[in-house]
Write a structure and sequence with these properties.
The protein is built from eleven helices and eight strands. The protein has helices at 20-30, 40-55, 58-66, 68-82, 86-89, 92-105, 113-122, 135-144, 157-160, 167-177, 192-200, and strands at 4-7, 14-15, 108-109, 126-131, 153-156, 184-188, 204-208, 225-227.
């Protein structure tokens, strides 16, 4: 019997940072007057590829979340230098900051999110939001998308001093909700953070796979359920 549900925030309840390549392309286009002889496609691809490589490392991902300004500016600068567009390295602060602003401007709440959250609340389930990221940024999203009064507990990485997939993020959330792991479910888009780590504690893990990706053959944990839309949980 499930007594509590923990939700991820970014790219589970809201469209936030998924599919970054089109965003980098849009930002590169905004700086087209400054590109000189650097082809737009080459600049956009260099930015997208360098960011993807950088964020493939967990420690780099943490730095990108918690030391956002300095980290994204450094990534942009290095990408332009490695792509042999050194003159664009001087624009790294402007390009990096514009990318962050562009992602924020284009965030939106998935249309099924509130209906599912409210339905779970109506069923008497305790709800927690477990999100990685900086306190100010994540709390802005929580308030902007009208989530504050819908959850019983919020676990924000910078605020807590640790984040997913550290087991403490889930253990402390469940302690705050007074629910045992065996009676709880985690829902999110990351197979490691939102499925593998919770399952290791005895929770159920639901993979919110909005882009219909294939489950990797070498996945360390198989989700208890795979969904492409949150409202499938109401079936």
């Amino acid at each position: 019997m499930i007594g509590a549900v923990l939700f991820d925030l970014d790219d589970t309840l809201i469209f936030a940072y998924a599919n970054p390549a089109p965003a980098w392309r849009a930002v590169a286009e905004e700086f087209s007057a400054h590109l000189g002889d650097a082809p737009l496609d080459a600049v956009a691809n260099a930015l997208a590829d360098s960011t993807a490589v950088f964020l493939s490392d967990d420690e780099n991902r943490r730095r990108w979340r918690l030391e956002a300004v300095a980290t994204r500016r450094a990534v942009v600068r290095n990408a332009m230098i490695e792509a042999r567009f050194p003159h664009l390295g001087e624009l790294a602060p402007e390009i990096g900051d514009r990318y962050a602003a562009y992602r924020e401007e284009n965030m939106y709440l998935y249309p099924d999110a509130l209906a599912v959250i409210d339905a779970f609340r109506a069923r008497g389930l305790k709800l927690g939001l477990v999100t990685n990221g900086a306190t100010e940024v994540q709390n802005w999203k929580i308030d902007h998308f009208d989530l504050r009064h819908r959850f019983d507990h919020f676990q924000v990485e910078e605020e807590a001093g640790f984040g997913k997939p550290d087991g403490r993020a889930y253990v402390e959330s469940l302690a705050a909700l007074n629910v045992d792991p065996a009676d709880a479910m985690m829902i999110g888009d990351d197979l490691v953070w939102d499925v593998l780590a919770p399952k290791r504690l005895g929770m159920a893990g639901v993979w919110c796979n909005r882009f219909g990706l294939e489950l990797p053959k070498d996945a360390e944990a198989v989700p208890d359920r795979v969904i492409t839309r949150l409202n499938q949980l109401l079936d």
